[in-house]
UniProtKB/TrEMBL annotation:
It is found in: Cytoplasm. Pfam families: ZapA (PF05164). GO terms for biological process: cell division. The lineage of its organism: Bacteria, Pseudomonadati, Pseudomonadota, Betaproteobacteria, Neisseriales. The keyword Cell division applies. Homodimer. Interacts with FtsZ. InterPro entries: Cell_div_ZapA-like, Cell_div_ZapA-like_sf, Cell_div_ZapA_N. Activator of cell division through the inhibition of FtsZ GTPase activity, therefore promoting FtsZ assembly into bundles of protofilaments necessary for the formation of the division Z ring. It is recruited early at mid-cell but it is not essential for cell division. Keywords: Cell cycle, Cell division, Cytoplasm, Septation. It comes from Vogesella facilis. This is Cell division protein ZapA.
Amino acid sequence: MSDVVQVDVTLLGRQFTIGTPSDERATLEQAVRLLADKIDTIQAGGRVMDADKVAIMAALNIAHDLLKVKVGDGGLEMATIQRKIHSMSEAADQALSASQQKLF
């Protein structure tokens, strides 16, 4: 089990302290940069909006981008890719196990 670290984050001029497992700190920092970039893009549009509205729009943009994630021409969704990887991993484990049994 990893230690929990406190990460200070500033978004839209407000500071937040977020607890995260130490081995996930880098991922949290990437998420903060992604959100900050979306916020900057929205604010660069020139329309004056309340901070709450900017945050909601940025979150919706990120959620929309996540739902659109597709890979290759076949349009495989991430869940399908994860299932296929898991199946391939199991097949590889079985093949390795069978080849090791033949050796001994």
